[in-house]
Every structure is written in structure tokens, then in C-alpha cells.
Amino acid sequence: MTTQWLKLYMPRSLYARAALILILPVVVMLLVISVAFLQKHLEDVTAQMTRAASREVTLVTDVIEHSETQHQAVAELRPDLAALDMKLRFLGINETPVIGNRRWYDFIAPQVESELRALLPDLVAVALPSGQEARLYLQTDLGVLQLTFDRRRLSPTAPHQLIVTVLFFAIIMTTISFLYMRNQLRPITRLAEAAQAFGRGRVVPYSPGGAIEVRAAGSAFLDMRARIERQMEQRTMMLSGVSHDLRTPLTRLKLGLSLLPEGEAAPLQQDVDEMQLLLDAFLDFSKGAAEVAPESVDPERFLRQIVKDACRAGHKVELVKVDGAGTAMLRPTAIRRAVENLIGNAVRYGNRAEISLSVSSKSLRIRVEDDGPGIPPEQRTEAVKPFSRLDPARNQNRGSGVGLGLAIVADVARAHGGVLRLGKSEHLGGLCADIIIGR
């Protein structure tokens, strides 16, 4: 439970998570190395070099304290300045120290100035401008003294270069690693795309590739897809064959019943009609969404045509609401069969049906509501199973059914990578059936 909040900020995609796993240790390592280098190496070395330079400056100021004039001090210090590799001059009466601008990446300069001010009480200003020069301004009895010497005597040369070098090679190596990682993850994404497409009823070309484990998963997916396709084909062939074979004896029965007197034939004719309805339902269920491929369909125009056909058949059906617009990849015959089944159930167990459409960038929702008795929540899962008949909930006396209507709708929705959801209509009080399909 303590890590639930962290999941909200973690990336979702495989590429992003792999990149995070790859980059985070590198960044942490760079930070640790940089901090350790700055604290344990640069600061200590800078402190030692600054103390050595301050002793040389103290030597110069001691000589000046015993001199009476500036010219005398310069003359006495000339041999020492040559040995110390320093330049000396006194500022004029109206002249002020020239500090200049430091380099923005000179992060060691504040420490140098701090160390010098602690070691040299008479220090007025420190100039560490761009370049290789350092200038110290000290207050003496003869005036403000300017000492100029090599900046490299105060701190290591270009300390930032190590960090820049480490960062540069870290970026190069991370980029190369990411390219190799992308090649390793590409077979996984291809497998995910093939599985997602198959879940939505499409078959895309796929061949296993990548590492041994990914190849094994890809081969297992191909075997599974082949088995499912064979089972679907066998189911379709079996139900179609049974239904086709039974049509011939049914036709003979109808012909025989037509020769009997009307009073004797009526009960038998009702049985034959029920058998015919059962066979038609078998055929619809066996077909499912077994069309060749989905096509681009305008959902609003498609639904308006279905509603128009239902109204011509004498049903009270209305398209009441349309949100959004655009096309979707659908199997028109299968979707029509599913919507017509929902409309048929609505007008069989109720008096009217209302249809609404919602189209967003991610999903498509077709909603059919009726004013019938509805289905209790505890029976909705059972209602979508094949050959399920919920007599008390749906008032079977108002029409006959074989329990395949909602099963066909659910099968069509799954074939499109979607789902059928049942609920209660807030507007009409009956059943609310949603076909939700991802775009």
C-alpha cells in the first residue's frame, strides 16, 4: 500500500520504463561521483593550493610593511616577484579594483575567494575573471596593492572538464544502450500489437524474433492463434452444417403440414416455426463476426439506417442522442446483427427502444435502452451466456427466444476488441445495453 502513490508517477509504456531503468542508475552514479569528486578532491586540493599561494602573498606584504615608499618596496621585491612569478603594482588614488566577470561554470571560485579572505585579513577584493589570470587587491600602509599571478596556482585547471567529460560520455553510452535496448524491445511490441489486433478480430502478419524468451512467447502466441482460428472455424462449420442439414427435413415437414387440414396442422406448424427460429439463431451465432475484414464506417449514418429499417418493420425505435463524430473500423454485417438483436429484445420485452451513440478519440459506444422489466444485476453475467433464458426477469410470455440474442451481441463486441455491458436504463427504467468498442 505504501508504494501505490508511486505508481501514479511511473511511466506506463515498456519503452519508458526500460529507459528509466537504464538512465536512473547512470544519473545517480554521476551525481555520486560528482559530489564525491567535488568534496573529497577538488575542495581539498583547492584549499592546499590556496594556502600555499597565501603564504607567498604574505611574504610580499611583509616586505612592503618594512618599506618606506612604493618605489622602495617594488625595488626590494623585484627579485622575489621574479622567483614567485608574480606582478606587483600599487593602485592610484582614484583607481578602484577591477573585479571583472567570472565564468558561469567556475564553481570552484567561491571556495577560492573564501579561503583567501580567511587567510589574508588585509584582502580587499579578489578578481578571478575569464582566462588564466588571478588578481588580489590588498590594503597596505603604502596603498592598495595589486598582485597578479597565474590562476592555476589557486585551484586545479578547468575542474569542470572532468564533469563535462563524464556527462558527455554518459550521454553517448546511454544513447548507444538505448538503441540496442530498442532493438530488443521491438519484438515485444510487435508481439503486443499482433495480440491486440487478434483480440479485436484482425489478423496481422507476425513472425517471432528477438531473444530466446521473446521467440518462445511469439511461437506460443502463433500456436494459440492457430488453435483459436481452428476452433472458430470448426464451430462455424458444425453449426452451419447442422442448421443446413435440418433445413431439408423442416421443408418436408412444412410441405406435409400444408396438406393437412388447418385445425390439425396449427399446433404442428407452431412447433415447426419454433424449430425454424432455433435454426436461424444457430446460424446467426455461428456466423458471429466472421467477416473477412473490418472497414471504415460512419457510425451515425449506419445507426440511422438500422433505426429506419426497424421503424419500417413496425417497431418503436428512435436515435435520441449522438455525441462526437468520425469513422470507425467495423464489420457492418456483424454490428447490424448485434444492434438488431438488442432492438428486437427491447421491443419484445418492452414497448419502445432508444438508441444513443457516443464517439470519442479512444472508443465507440452504442447504447440501446428499453422500458421493459430489465435484468437483475445478479443475472446479467448469466444473461450473455449462450442458450440462457431468464424467464422471470424478462417475461418470456411476451415472446419466444432461444437464449442466443445477447450471446451473439457479446460475441460481436469481443470480435471487435470491445465488450457488452448490461445495466439499468436511468431514462426508461428497463435494460440498458452498451456495445463499447476501442478505436
From TrEMBL:
Location relative to the cell: Cell inner membrane
Residue ranges crossing the lipid bilayer per the database entry: 14-38, 162-181
EC number: 2.7.13.3
The protein's name in its UniProt record: histidine kinase
Domain HAMP: 182-233
Entry superkingdom: Bacteria
Pfam families linked to this entry: HAMP, HATPase_c, HisKA
Primary localisation category: membrane
GO molecular function, one term: ATP binding
Reaction catalysed by this enzyme: ATP + protein L-histidine = ADP + protein N-phospho-L-histidine
A GO cellular component entry from the record: plasma membrane
Source species of the chain: Ruegeria faecimaris
Domain Histidine kinase stretches: 241-439
UniProt keyword list: ATP-binding, Cell inner membrane, Cell membrane, Kinase, Membrane, Nucleotide-binding, Phosphoprotein, Transferase, Transmembrane, Transmembrane helix, Two-component regulatory system
SMART domains on file: HAMP (SM00304), HATPase_c (SM00387), HisKA (SM00388)
Bilayer topology term: Multi-pass membrane protein
